[in-house]
Amino acid sequence: MQTAPHKTDIKTITDNYLEAVRYMENAKDMLKNKACKVNGVYQDKKYVRMACAIAYLAALLATETYLACKGKPIPNRKDRRNNIDDYKRELAKADRKMLSHLHGVWNYLHCDGYYRGLAVAKGIQTGMECAECLINAIRPAGEEALVTKI
Length: 150
Fold this sequence. Notes:
This protein is mainly alpha-helical. Helices cover 64% and strands 3% of the residues.
């Protein structure tokens, strides 16, 4: 995963956007072709977990880039790794609407889909939509690739 820009460098923003889109496409493909949805429930939890983890990483990359564009990059910690609370804290200062999307990604994709292995399609879909909102928020002007709905 590329690091978010410290300045609003359009090439880095575009690269991060395209990488996040690629992650989302991979996650959607995995859900569609390998997780096997039957009656609103995915049948193979292994692929649900993998897809949720990939989509979650895409959302984190988009969030890092979004915050850097707003002039509020996530500070690097010397004593520990950054965690979701660092993202939430900085996003709360920058944009409350984007914060609600990050909460959705965290709850539906990371906690429910990846960690707990829940396979209810509606919840996973909600998390994917939240991730798409975060990714589309960093779409450079003139960039034609938009994250598409599953």
